[in-house]
Amino acid sequence: MSRVSGPWPPVSVEPPAVHPKAPSPGTELGVHFDECFGCGDEVDAGLRLRSIVGEGHTVLSKFTVTPAHQGAPGLAHGGLLACAFDEALGSAVGNLLRRPAVTGKLETDFRRPVPVGSTLHIETRLDGTAGRKIYVSADGHLDAPDGPVAVTARALFVAVGFEHFTTHGDSEALQKLADAREKQRRAQDGQEWEINP
Ligand SMILES: CCCCC/C=C\C/C=C\C/C=C\C/C=C\CCCC(=O)SCCNC(=O)CCNC(=O)[C@H](O)C(C)(C)COP(=O)(O)OP(=O)(O)OC[C@H]1O[C@@H](n2cnc3c(N)ncnc32)[C@H](O)[C@@H]1OP(=O)(O)O
């Protein structure tokens, strides 16, 4: 099987419509859900991926491999590395486009082993959109932003309505999460305090 995938993006795309209130370069992106395996603080063996906004509509994420993430002794499990990319790519889509979206397809190329104790620096780019389809890709560098590339990924996210999550997920927990996020966004946008008429 060839190592070379097809052209990317696979269809003709528009440049990504970055939201006018998307966080600026250097902004730290918070945890989107405390119980998220990718970024949440309340998951003991979670990846605890952390991200900031980079220049040129990129997101820079970091994840340190612990013994809880092993596949073979001393080495990261490929499925958990794919999870880290899902999280990093999803964070770029959610925070820069501010559109709810889910992963439709995620492709990973594992180029070098990733040892326990190493930190993967993931740089994600928004490659373009075609209607509801959002194409993103990322490179994962070992132990430094310019370290050797260990893993690369490409993904298609599909924009969905909020009802995707309420219909298929836990709607009560989601409403709480949505309210908290809205409050956080208003605070970031300087709209937290309404002036009485
Ligand atoms: C979780 C985030 C909460 C969101 C809150 C919002 C903002 C938050 C801000 C920041 C978020 C920060 C971080 C997020 C971090 C991580 C995110 C993790 C994301 C996940 O981990 S999420 C779980 C895994 N994910 C799923 O659980 C999806 C299950 N799935 C479905 O729910 C449906 O399958 C769906 C909706 C994908 C499509 O269904 P559908 O009926 O709506 O639309 P349809 O099928 O027509 O597809 C439309 C067009 O996409 C093309 N298309 C679709 N799939 C394709 C494929 N695989 N390959 C090639 N093309 C594909 C079609 O071919 C068509 O293309 P065309 O328009 O050209 O015909």
From TrEMBL:
Residues of the Thioesterase domain: 74-140
Domain of life: Bacteria
EC id: 3.1.2.2
Keyword Cell inner membrane: no
Alphabetic keyword roster: Apoptosis, Cell membrane, Cell projection, Cytoplasm, Fatty acid metabolism, Hydrolase, Lipid metabolism, Membrane, Transit peptide
GO MF term (any one): hydrolase activity
Region (Disordered): 1-25
Localization per record: Cell projection, Ruffle membrane; Cytoplasm; Membrane
Record GO biological process: fatty acid metabolic process
Any Pfam family: 4HBT
Membrane topology reported for the UniProt record: Peripheral membrane protein
Reaction(s) this enzyme catalyzes, per UniProt: (5Z,8Z,11Z,14Z)-eicosatetraenoyl-CoA + H2O = (5Z,8Z,11Z,14Z)-eicosatetraenoate + CoA + H(+); dodecanoyl-CoA + H2O = dodecanoate + CoA + H(+); (9Z)-octadecenoyl-CoA + H2O = (9Z)-octadecenoate + CoA + H(+); decanoyl-CoA + H2O = decanoate + CoA + H(+)
GO cellular component: cytoplasm; membrane
Major enzyme class: hydrolase
Family in the record: Belongs to the THEM4/THEM5 thioesterase family.
Alphabetized PANTHER family for the sequence: ACYL-COENZYME A THIOESTERASE THEM4 (PTHR12418)
Official protein name in the record: Acyl-coenzyme A thioesterase THEM4
